[in-house]
């Protein structure tokens, strides 16, 4: 199953009522300034890809309206950088925009390179290569000392893992022949650790890791399993167990590398919104806004009718959350990282 990118309509996003901030952005910006948080650098899948896949020869894209803003856009805006976090491969990206942060994410990718390779998108290893190109451009623009300061004080965000299970392990035959589900989870964690260690060697010191969403609460997986009204417990168990191991691995990396780390419990937030939508201001948690809401996503949403009030829906399509749900996730990240001061890094 594919997860895809969004296209941003800036004017539309600015006018949308759900773009107003639930958290007070002034303290967030004061915190960012006090802690010398220089920018946001993002790695991951469609949950954080603002358009890198648009230039790839892949069907894993949604470069048509009205796909909207991501959680990383709201985080960047709250911290005072940009209303939209650009894709590094965006042909319209200007070199003078680089110091404010970019996303290297590629929809449909995962911790396992095979997840990306079967659909011709960017594996994490390639995203890191582009990050190295980013560093070169930054040094040319600002000089080595200032460029290194920006990298070491950037907030690195890593968000992926869903496709490793739904697009790879549960569909493609290769990995199940090699690994039991438990061993595959451990394999993913080893790959993640190696990638983060490479990021650390390249200057990463502040890391936000987003957990895997409740796989059994996605409208498409519920429809496939014939459980439109309830989440699929077996799939949620897979996500929950992986997230528990992910959290422990982040703790291990923090101790080993001296990273400042934060974990985002997106599983808990989305599951809670699906089960109790009114608590978050939603009315519909079982289906998406596009088409029937249970099967369409990505290119199959093109030209389909949509609901008139997407801010009442947890999901935009049969796979991806709405802007409002991403905004809720962003607020949680902002509150988490600003609870304790982080210090400017020079080493």
CATH architecture: 3-Layer(aba) Sandwich
Give the helices and strands as they follow along the chain: HHEHEHHHEHHHEHHEHEEH
- The count of strands amounts to 7
The pLDDT mean sits at: 90
Oligomer: single chain
- Overall geometric form: globular
What share of the residues does DSSP label as strand, in percent?
Answer: 5-15%
CATH superfamily: SGNH hydrolase
Cross-sheet strand order for the largest sheet: 2-1-3-4-5
Task: Evaluate the radius of gyration.
Answer: 19 Å
CATH class: Alpha Beta
Please explain how this structure is put together.
Keywords: Signal. It comes from Lotus japonicus (Lotus corniculatus var. japonicus). This is GDSL esterase/lipase. The strands form 2 sheets. A 5-stranded parallel β-sheet has the order 2-1-3-4-5, sandwiched between helices. A two-stranded parallel sheet has the order 6-7. The chain has helices spanning 10-15, 25-34, 71-78, 113-117, 124-142, 144-152, 162-169, 174-178, 181-201, 219-224, 233-257, 266-275, 323-337; strands spanning 40-44, 101-103, 155-159, 206-210, 260-264, 284-288, 313-315. Helix content is 42%, strand content 9%. The chain has a single domain (24-274), classed as 3-Layer(aba) Sandwich (Rossmann fold). Mean pLDDT is 90; it is low at 1-21. The longest helix has 25 residues, at 233-257. The chain is of the alpha/beta class and 347 residues long. It is globular, with a radius of gyration of 19 Å. Helix 3 crosses helix 13, helix 5 crosses helix 6 and helix 9 (181-201) packs parallel to helix 11. Strand 1 (40-44), helix 3 (71-78) and strand 2 form a beta-alpha-beta unit. The chain has 13 helices and 7 strands.
